[in-house]
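Title: Prediction job returns without error message
Component: structure pipeline
Severity: low
Priority: P3
Assignee: unassigned

Description:
Job completed but the reporter wants confirmation the result is attached to the right record. Sequence as submitted:
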Amino acid sequence: MVTTEGEELLAGLHDLRPILEPQSVAVIGASRQQGTVGHAVLTNLLMGQFTGVVYPVNPNAKSICGVRTYPSVLDIPDPVDLAVVIVRAPLVPQVLEQCGQKGVRGAIVISAGFKETGPEGAKLEEQVREIAHHHGIALVGPNCLGVINTDPNFRLNASFAKEMPLPGNIAFISQSGALCTAVLDYAKGQGIGFSKVVSLGNKADVNENDFLAFLWRDPQTQVILLYIEELSEGQRFLQLAREITGEGDMRKPILALKAGRTPAGARAVASHTGSLAGSDEVYEALFAQAGVLRADTVEDLFEYAIAFANQPLPQGKRTAIITNAGGPGIIATDGCVRYGLELAQLSEQTLTFLREKLPPHASLQNPIDLIGDAQHDRYEVALNAALDDPNVDAIVVLLTPQAMTDIENIAWVIVNASKRQSKPILACFMGLVDISAGGQHPKEQRCPLLCFP
């Protein structure tokens, strides 16, 4: 339930339903020519099986991809919710003015050539912003990839990404369109699905706060990822993120990758989207206060996301480590302590149970070392004991491939335990070749699997 403070935070933010949940889309600048952005956006909407109506706008063509075109948005006979604008930058103000006259409530300006190019581009972008405000149009961009919503009720791919991503419960908001395309390709290879993918571009109007507010209430989204170069309204972000990541029933993790941490990176940010990166120390403090978890790399961002998207949130810091090798258990122990977790003190009932079921040479103190010849039966005993122990909030399961290790059976033990959804379980199968077959089962069942502790 949204708190009173949360309701106040939502006041003044854009209504993004015309952008993420439109019934009709006009593609202004649709093109017959393959390999162009105007062709890619139109075909993505059609091939993605958008559930609404698509209107290509091109004054020089009667039809594109077998769909009738219109000379301008004003010539479309029916209402239009969303306009995707792909024309040269100097023409964007005129096109947006026509959209306002038409009553369009959402626009995505994919065109580049605005503040990222310098003072003249910044003036043009300000003109575009003023037109959008005057007509009450929620505007995403300019200089962006577009927006994707995998919700089966809409199936909107209003972008020039290569293809529609798999559906899932992770939302990704990015200030870099090119990073979006790379991430979508990576995610496809990893079997990761998305609820929404949003490219913010220059953020002339709509910014990350508008999308955070929408995703907070979005039933398809359980985890929110951010790639940002700068925040538009830091104070509102702090208050909104704190509400989203708080203690209520609607809480959702927010994971962020902030670019421009170094002076050289900050200069690169300015030339990319015309943004001011700001002090990294300020962002570090802001994220900490807001409950936002910061990732250092794209890989980290998605490893965190997979864990949060597919496991219950832990109720505390107490972690149990189960391993068949001492060294990895020590590495995992150091990692837990370094990141503010605690090694769980197993209950006497759990210790008694483990003494009865495990060999006498197994180490029962956390980490629970099952010894190198452990097979799936020992893992099953230890894992179920940790799940039932009230002193344990989360579990890390480590495996190194020995000659006697029945990796596939151990994988299924972890998968079945994970289905109980009582506590988060993270698995680590160390290696690459020997563990590959067994490692597929946790991935297929959405159980987080890492290569190193």
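Comment from assignee: result matches the submitted record. Residues 314-450 form a domain with the Rossmann fold fold (CATH 3.40.50.261).
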